[in-house]
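User: Fold this; tokens only.

Assistant: Input:
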Amino acid sequence: MEGCAEAMQRALLDEYPKAFSQVSEAWLRSKLNPEDAFHMMPIPLKQIGLGAVGEKSQWPVVLRMILGWLGYVDNYRSLGLDFSDYKVAKVLTSNRNFDEVLEILRKLRDVHGMKDRADRIQSGVILRLAFGDSLVKELSPAGVFTEMFSSVTISSTNVGREESDWAVLLTQLEKWLEYVDEYRSLGLDFSDYKLAQVLAVHRNKDEVLEILYMLEGVPGMKNRVARMRTGLKFYISIASAEISDSIVTPEKAFYMTNVLAKLDGGANVNMLGSLIALSELDNWLDYVYEYRSRGHVFSNNDVLDLLIKHIKASRLSRILRKLRDTLGMEYRATPLLKLLANRRRRNYDDWARSELSPAEVYHLLSISKAIFILGAGKEGSRQHTALSMLEDWLNYVERYWSFDHVFSNGQVIDVLCSHRQTEEVIEMLRMLQYVPGMENQAHMLLSSLACRLQFTVRLNSGWTPKVVYPMMPISTAKLIPSSSGRMELDWPVTLSEFHDWLDYVDKFRLLGRKFSDDQVIDVLTATRPIEEVVELFHKFRDVHGMKHRADQFQRLLLLRSTAVDSPAVEHALVCGVLKSK
């Protein structure tokens, strides 16, 4: 449906250009990234022949749409969000060749008031061409900085005095920061702490502060400068402490940061999603790595122990996920998340062994209290917190299954829909599909939800469980290799799917319609080997609250098998359903 919605928006903009302002307002409310907005706009995608008369009629459309998009970029920046002119250049070159983009920018320069903007974007396009070789070689931003600034002569004797010198410095610095972003986008690490180190090596403290002050005035750089200031402040704190101490331990460095004020609870709880807060944590983790590189020991377990001393494990998990999903910060977060997950799994295993129902764990984790705003996209601390908590709970459901306990997908949906609007649940599961490792589970739950939403329609239409059965996942249950090496059904999943279909049977009966247990058996034995059906009923006994019903199914199935040597009786003996005399 997401692709369908985008296509409808493109059609709306194409047919009614005035509607763009309304659509862009909706995008802005959800803080839609300008890159995503660009690809949803109906900008002609075919190549515009340079100088070709037959294609010139496309220019007014292209320019109008790009001007509209640049207006959206400005509004996006006005919210305090970063999207530099270099990123604009990156988006424009994502589906057009460089020559065509340069031609578009030449046209844009002729639009009143757009000359300087077009020139800045053009610098970004040229910069993308220049960066290519360095990025392929994965050259460190520190080395690139030295090369780029070798000809920039501003020093403490003339800083702030020559406007032309400032223009050169800021232009070079903006280009370098874009290189840092490209470097990070490759999954390579270069924190704001490292960034501050590079600046401090080449400039004194007052110069760096003055440079940051001037850089703050560059469009789209406000948030970036704020993060750089946190890195600089941390670097200065470490450098000052090392004057008196030979080495600053990670514990001491941790309390030099503002991590707790930004990430701990209380009045600052809403700052969880702040890039500045995450930058503080990333800077400290980078210092830990630097500490280790000097031959000292401070393991990831030590890191977690220190963090958990101040931040609850469940909350820390959400913070680390946010850190992982932020450009340039995933490098440190991923191993910590794995380690934290292993610790958590031990708790989950204890709960699962004691057969603590996922419905009870849902309340223990306080998931219903997490705020999720419908239509606000996946950005923002509240959205991220709600999705992280849902991911935690679904991980417990999987652990519960691994102990051969059953909690059907239908039951998962029932729990979710009993605490949230159906529309919210749908949107959360759709977003969860993009979380690494959650794609399949989210897809299964969306399918189960779709089935349940259709229950009412099908029940009102009088569709019998026999008619509905082929439309439900249970009908396509597949065999997988078991631990013993033989092929068998994926029992936790199959039992969950069988439970969902029985739920439909029960709802059908509540309407006063007849569908007996014999008919349930008829449907199953018509589509599955008798041995599988016997084993299904045998394992269904272990589903919470289903022992009596499973025994009833088994008795009916065995009563129908009049021959002593029938497959049903034979397999029942193997499963231990019947006792030998």
